[in-house]
Structures are given as structure tokens and as C-alpha cells.
Amino acid sequence: MKLYVYCDSTKTNKDGCIPVMLIVKNNKGRFLINTGLTTKEKFTGREFPKSEKNRTAKTSALGRYLLKVEEICLLNSELDNNKLKEKINSEVFSKGSVKGKTLAHYIRQYANSMINRGTSEVYLRTAHRVMSFDDSATFESVDRNWLENYKSHYNKTLKTNTISIDLRNIRTVFNRAIDDEITIKYPFRKFKIASERVIIRNLDAKQIAQFRDCKVSSWLEIYRDLFMLDFYLCGVNAVDLLMCKGLTNGRFVGKRAKTGATMDLPVEKEAMDIINKYKGESYLLSPMDNRSDYRSFERIWNDNLKKIGKEEKVKDKVGKLRKIIYHPLFGKDFQMTTYVARYSFASIAASIGIDRETIALCLSHSWADVTDHYINYDRSRVDKAVRAVIDHVGSLKNEGQ
């Protein structure tokens, strides 16, 4: 058994200090132990550099740790390295045991640390599926075969991309656990996470005009109109539109909930007409006035977008002509959701010759060669692009039902 002192300069603390680690190497492998000591200057050997404040006290503490770790290793040579590390952490550094904590536990813990609620919920769903598949899985029991079996288990019930999201979430939690020195295992080294190309659901300009002009029952108007508002605002995400409290100097300004990217969009007359029609009290739009969570309305909105089209009255179970069957404008296989507004805006913009950089700005995406300075001071490109897309769709009249 060999014991080394290692200064991990890749994990410098916020105050610029370097963690001092111990490397334990034996015939079963090697593992790292965090001593809790830090240094301003990287060193080798068993003594802190002369430049280090409290050098004598730190060197003395390090010496005690080394002696105790060596003693535990010699007296417990029958233990595997995971249990040996746990014993050292518990007896030398008074760190709590992680025994009994499952992989699902750590995924939930990671989810609860998220600021973004949507991202947190994605991780919580992963934790639930991990529990359903193997409620006793731990960092130590998960290997490549486990990952392959997880993928095979859910292949029949979940889409490939959903499984891939789970596996990427598990990988992220493993990486976090390695950083936190909870485990040294990493089963993803030779494991490839598959994914499918997402089918882009977009409408062309003619179809957008059809949807805009489609005659519907009065109660469905709000869902059609808000979709068009979403489109006129470059397809902003539902959370950003519904949670908006108001315009800023006549513009739609804010930060994307998903990425934190800045949004600064023109509100053209077509959009303002819809905002005025459904103007809210506490929020920009009235559907949020009696809600604290946008998701409830988003679900209703998406469900009812699928009803926009031809309405047919048929007899109900008692023979009265009062049941309505909805025939979606673009067929039952087309999944009409708020996301279609975003995809459609980008596709139509590209079809009329608007360059990719400008489209990226409209969508509040980052672009490799577009600097923050450029984004802040050349909003005229976005304004012109939005007007051009709206005018192109607006030129297509009488295409609705």
C-alpha cells in the first residue's frame, strides 16, 4: 500500500485555495480522500510550503491524517476500496457514511438543488424511472451492463430521446458525485448514449395564414389568437409569454426561463391587437390572472390547439345532435402545440432569405460569432426580420376555412 499527498489544482476554491488530497494506492486500485486542508501554493511531499500561512499547524495536521490513514489501511486490508474509503472518511475526517443512499436519492437531491423548476422536474422524472427499474441501485452497483439493461427495459415504452435524457441525467449525477468524492466509479467511459433527430413540426406561411383565419367557436378563439401572438413574438416559449408581467417601452423584454438569454423583441400591431384583446391585470395576458402556475394553462392551450379546424356535430349516446367531433386543420397526426409557432417562425424566416444569425437573434439563441455588444446594439436586424415575416404571412389572405 502506498500513500501520497496530492494538491488538486483543477478544483481551486472560490478564494483561490487548492484542496489537499490523499491518494491511496493498493493492489485493488486507487482512490482519493479529501483532507479538508487547503494551500495557496501547490506542493509535493508531506510538508506545506514555507509561504503558507499556519504552515506548522497544517503540516502537523497532515502528518496525523497520514499516520491514521496508513493505520486503517494496514488493519483493514480485507476491505474493498469503496468500504475502505468510507471507513477512512468516517473515522479520520468525521464524514457521514453514504451507505444506504441510492442512485435515485442522489438524482432527487441534484434535482432539488436546481433553480430552474422545469429542469428539476426532468431530473425528478428520471429518479422515478430509476426507482421503478432498480430501487436499490447505487453508484457502486451501476456499471455498463446496468446502463444497457436500463435502456433495454424502457425501449418498448419510452422514446429513444426520453431514455437518452435519463441516461444523460444519470451521467451528470455521476460526474457530480465524482467531484464531491462520493464515488470514483464512472460507467459511461465506453457507453454510448443514442439519440434520435427530433422531427421539426413547423407550418409554412400559407398554413399559418390558414390557421390565423380559421373560423372556430368563440371559446376556442383565445387559443388560436394566442398561438398567433406567440408566432408574432418569434415563437417565445409558453413560460416566457405567460409569465410576462408587461411590456417595456412597447417591447417584449426579459430573459428566457430555459437559458437565461436576453429577449428584446418588437411588438408589432398584429401582436398588440391580440395583447389588447386579452390584456391581463397582474400579467400581460388575462389567462394568468387567476393562476400561479403557467403550466395548467399551457396544457389546456396545447390540448385545444389540436381542436382548431372543422367542427362536426353528431348524435350523442341518447340520440341528440349535440356532440362535437373536431377535425384538426392539419390532420390528427400533426401534433399542434405552442412549439410549432417557434419552429414555424424560424422556417418561414429562412424561406424568405433572412440569414441564420438574425434568426438566431430573433429566437434569443446564442451564436458563436455574435457578441453581446452586437446583440445589444443591433436590434434593428431583429425588428426588420419580424416585420418581414409578419408581412409575408399577412400577404396571404382568405386562406382560412
What does the model show?
There is one protein chain. The protein has helices at residues 55-75, 81-91, 103-112, 117-133, 144-154, 160-179, 205-213, 221-232, 238-242, 269-277, 294-305, 339-351, 356-362, 372-377, 380-394, and strands spanning 2-7, 18-26, 29-39, 251-255, 262-266, 309-315, 321-328. With 401 residues, it is of the alpha+beta class. The protein folds into 3 domains: 2-91, no CATH class; 103-179; 205-394, hpI Integrase, Chain A, CATH 1.10.443. It has a 3-stranded antiparallel β-sheet. Strands 4-5 form a two-stranded antiparallel sheet. Helices cover 44% and strands 13% of the residues. A hairpin with a 6-residue loop joins β4 (251-255) and β5.
User: Can you identify the CATH class of the largest domain?
Assistant: Mainly Alpha
The number of domains is 3
Unreliable residue stretches: 367-375
- At CATH level 2, the architecture of the largest domain is Orthogonal Bundle
Helix content: 40-55%
H/E element order = EEEHHHHHHHHHEEHHEEHHHH
Number of helices: 15
Q: What amount of the residues lies in strands?
A: 5-15%
Observed structural traits:
401 residues; hpI Integrase, Chain A; 3 domains; three-stranded antiparallel beta sheet; 15 helices; 7 strands
Characterize this entry briefly.
With 401 residues, the protein is α+β, with helices and mostly antiparallel strands.
